[in-house]
Amino acid sequence: MRLLTLAVASFAGSAVASPSSSTQHHPQLHHRSSLNQTAPSCRAVPGGAGWPSADLWAALNTTVEGRLLKPAPPGAVCHPSQPTYSKDACTATQANWTDEFFHSSNPVSVEWNNWTNDTCLPDASQPCSGEGYPVYVVNATTPQHVQASVKFAQANNVRLIVKNSGHDYVGRSAAPYALSIWVHYMKNTTVHPTSFSPTGCSNVTIAGAALTAGAGIQMYDAYALTHTINHTVIGGNGRTVALGGFITGGGHSILAPQNGLATDSVLEMEIVSPTGDVLTLNECHNTDLFWAMRGGGGSTFGVLTSVTMALIPSPEVVGMTFWIGTGADNTQAFDMLAYVVSQFPDLADAGISGYPIVFNTVKNFIDGSDTFIKGIIGKLILPGSSNATQLIERIKPIFQHVNATWPDMFGEYNTTYYPDFQAWYAENFDPSPTGHENLMSSRLLDRPALTSDLSALKLALAKFSASGQATVYIVSGPAVHKAKPRGGSNAVLPVWRRTYVHATASIAYYTPNNATYLADAKELTGFFSSAMRDLAPDTGAYMNEASKYETDWQTTFWGNNYPRLLSIKRQVDPDDVLWCTPCVGSERWAEEADGSLCRV
């Protein structure tokens, strides 16, 4: 069979983060628990009576050492009616619009156009305004910059958001009429080569290497830095994913089945609270917030200014690229797919993880012909091994069963040895296509969902991949199930503790400002969610990579942890200074048709 080198699309994680210095260790759980009903019913908007005066904004700029920005939308350079119009700049922006690093390095841009409501694309034929973007941005490089921003928003009834890289599948990094805290340049790091002692925890020393990282640290930074001491973080596969939102949402990883979720490795956090206090969170101090911030979601309980994570020795890796396909008209294609996916729990239990993708009626990538095929393609790894035979012996029986049961299938696998995880990552990172409209749906699948009824799994996979492809990532397993986070537990959706597969389906479209396309995309992601909910009604979804429009999102994203999370939110942020959706405690506010944020 021919040797095939294939790129696997759409890997991992989301982002919002942040570093810190001065700290307070007093629990911040004494505030009133109900919204002040004498407060304005809506957040202030530019031109409105409550919007801060120019003098107040100037005072904030002085407080943050001149780091207050009022940026134009990045696409405005392509619109002759806009002050920043430039033909040359437009050409450069258009060339870079699909580059994740372009959006990451811009103070207001995000990776997918729909989260700024297509309000100013680099296309002169489309409308351009700043209505989908924050009005002001603080380019925060210290916790004190974050403090000043939070206190200003609280005192002046201004909507507050947090952006790091803009790699956010549910659109929390952008909002109209807002002040944004941009933590991208908070990149301080400290490597603890042998052990870490949590702040203020007497006689507690945690053995093993650790990394303290500021909010601006993204995956490609974190992997490169930890590689210098032959270790690695438990991280995502996208290069621009930042630690903050990744960890606060849970943080799945190709290394998770063997080492736990990213948030399970957190030893300490520093945050700026919604009341503007700099707090240290660990197993000894602010323990409720420490629990909530590890899985309860970003931009909710505080602005993360730094995080300390346990590291693992960088494992050698046997990697595998594989595919199995058949003609698109083969009525047994999804029988084969259901069988293959049903084997994933056993693979995970054997130490194998990876990023498989089901493809449903796509152009034939094998011979480049005009025919169409269905099947599965992916990348698997066996960490901690140099022996390819160990991986092949687990995969070969699957291929043999497929060949014996469905003779019209064809496929290939090949293996590569990598001396450490960084070597694998350098060849296999997620390129994260950007610059288009993108909606996602997801579901976590446990062993019963994957093995108890293959007919139901077949139907669910067929529906879930109806847009052309769906991921069935093996990113959970024994170490996630048995994880022992510091302090005894954390706030991740409890279903993770029995999950094996994180399945996602996305709708990407390239026709902006089209209400019909958007409505269809929302309907289709709802169809995807329903299909997987029927298969696994008692599981849930990974909140960082899911549908923003998920029904019963409180249970879907947090399960029986939600009541405790909501109680903590009401205590530490009674006035909802931090608000995003779908996020813990967001029920009391909603965005109006004009983009303003008002109480409901």
From TrEMBL:
The keyword Signal applies. Gene3D superfamilies: 3.30.465.10. InterPro entries: BBE, FAD-bd_PCMH, FAD-bd_PCMH-like_sf, FAD-bd_PCMH_sub2, FAD-linked_Oxidoreductases_BP, Oxid_FAD_bind_N. Residues 1-17 form the signal peptide. Pfam families: BBE, FAD_binding_4. Residues 130-314 form the FAD-binding PCMH-type domain. Residues 17-46 are annotated as: Disordered. Keywords: Oxidoreductase, Signal. Belongs to the oxygen-dependent FAD-linked oxidoreductase family. This is FAD-binding PCMH-type domain-containing protein.
